[in-house]
Amino acid sequence: MKILQGIRAGKRRCDNGIKIILRRVSIFKRLNFSFLLLILTTAIFLTFFSFYKYSDEISDNIDRYASLLVQNVKMKIQDSLEAYETEALAFYDNSQVIAALQENAVLAREGVDPENDRYARNRYSVENRLYNMRRNQRYIVNIQFVSPTEQYRMVEGSGFTRGGLIKDMEKFYQSDFYLLPQEKKGYPVWIDSQEQTWTFYKNEQSIYGLGNIVTLCVAVYGPIDKDFLGVLIMNIDLKAFSGAMEGYESYRDGNAFLVGRDGVLLSYNPSIQAPAFPKESHLYELMEKEKSGITEEKIDGKKVLIAFERVSGTGMFVTYFADMDVLFAGTHHIRNLCILVLLITVVACFVISYYVTVSISDPVKELVEVMQETGGGKWTARYPNSGNDELTVLGERFNEMTDKTDQLIEQVYRSEIRRQEISISWKNAQLSALLMQINPHFLYNTLDIIRWEAMYEAGGESRVTQMIEKFSQLCRMGMCAGGNTITLKEGIEHAKTYLEVLNFRHTEKIGLEIECEAQENRLYMPQFILQPIMENSVIHGFEDGSHGFSIRIRAFCREGKLLLYVQDNGKGMDEQELELLRESMERTETEEGSIGLANVHQRIRLFYGEEYGLRINSRAEFGTEVEISLPVRYQSENMEGNREE
């Protein structure tokens, strides 16, 4: 199972890899290349497969026919050779001739003169028999019988000598013509070597020996005592084998030869255009080694088919030579015709595949261009439909989708504008409500302080007058602001004045420490954000006390933000109180008792965003620190209109 799962996983990876590679190529190239690849592969395979199968079959037929040719020619030559061997055996079977040879052999050993009548009668009997054998066969050039002491020639009945002779008897006794037949013990021996030319002559006056012959040699023995009597020699004209090629005129594309050890003995239907038998001996050595077969050789730069068969009992071979280019000329013509048809087919298929591919890729390109235009915001672009295929249906659906999308965008755009207008109105209304919450609350607390102070100061009016003056100054500072945001310097002055008003109620003043590292004259901040925090410290942190209490205000810029820290040394809060305060600040609806901090936090977030506002840190008995996070602004903003100038 794991092996199968691994194979399936490998197949999936392979499929995905192929798809990824193909998807990197355009549709036009992909389709065109695929069509051409399939068509070319199929056409080339069918063309050359058919051609090579046809060529192989022709080659096999040629080999078979060439082999049959040399075999049949060989059989005809063997029939002729057997006829001459039969004629030679007829001489051997003639008891009168054998008796004459035996008697002359005895007389020769006894030293009788060859001119003796008895010797001469025997001699005539043998030579006349040789003549009669010659008369029965037209292609026998010469018949001789050579005994260990002399040679017998053909003689007519009138006593006239005919036929050839051997001039150098001593050399003859050392030659294969005399020795090989003795080794074969009476079996016929065929010799085709060039030694025939300087061994056998037509007559004593001849300078040149017999040519174009093949020699049959048979050793003759006594029938009873098996004494060697001599060698019967039969010189046969090669024309005796010229009729072996009759009936094979269709093989004129090549040359057939009867070949011996020393070269060509006979040519059949010679053709100048067909290959000739090479002069090198390596080919004969090859044939002698293989005996029969078919091979291919390079002769004079041409590839030549060679079929050969050895003639049994001889050193001769029937060979057939044919030029491969000539034999396969028709095949080459068919090959060229196939290639031409292949080229025409490929061109036609390329044209068809091109137009089919273009009919798919061009509409796809147009659809992609229209999609790119609409993606860039040009919703008026439409796909021009010009067909009845699936791409046309896809284009029509895209146009419908574009129309509906355009309408939907218009509706959403208008709805969004309306929603933003409502949201802005809501924020402005909520901001105004928060501002309205601060002023009554602040005034209530201030009047309460004045009330308590008047109770303690019933005897003197100067302090109350000062408190009212400071309170009036504080109100006047808020009312004289040119917009809803004021400079950082004005905000700090508000805080100082506010604390001075608070300190009227205490004998020991609440301390105020200010550290400003920002550009207080250039930076702007919302108004009334420090006073509620300081009020929270006095009421909840100091519990209306003043002894030893102080407030520290720090201001600086960091990473595009204006950070204000208001820190007191009051009683602080434990974790539970701190968590409850933080939760109440995140509510959109402010609760009684926490209106100051929640009001400031919501105002900042409504105007600047969720990333700004208040963050409170406190520990029991260690005081409370409030961090105010604001964006850096170098110009005044109208919070009521909720817009930037």
TrEMBL record:
Record bears the keyword Mitochondrion: no
UniProt-listed Enzyme Commission number(s): 2.7.13.3
Membrane topology value: Multi-pass membrane protein
Pfam families hit by this protein: dCache_1, HAMP, HATPase_c, His_kinase
Broad EC category: transferase
GO MF, any single term: phosphorelay sensor kinase activity
Domain Histidine kinase: from-to ranges: 463-634
PROSITE patterns registered for this protein in UniProt: HAMP, HIS_KIN
Regions that span the bilayer: 33-52, 337-356
Main location: membrane
Domain HAMP: 358-410
Record bears the keyword Kinase: yes
Chemical reaction(s) catalysed: ATP + protein L-histidine = ADP + protein N-phospho-L-histidine
Location within or outside the cell: Cell membrane
Superkingdom classification of source: Bacteria
Keywords annotated in UniProt: Cell membrane, Kinase, Membrane, Phosphoprotein, Transferase, Transmembrane, Transmembrane helix, Two-component regulatory system
Gene Ontology CC: plasma membrane
Listed name of the protein: histidine kinase
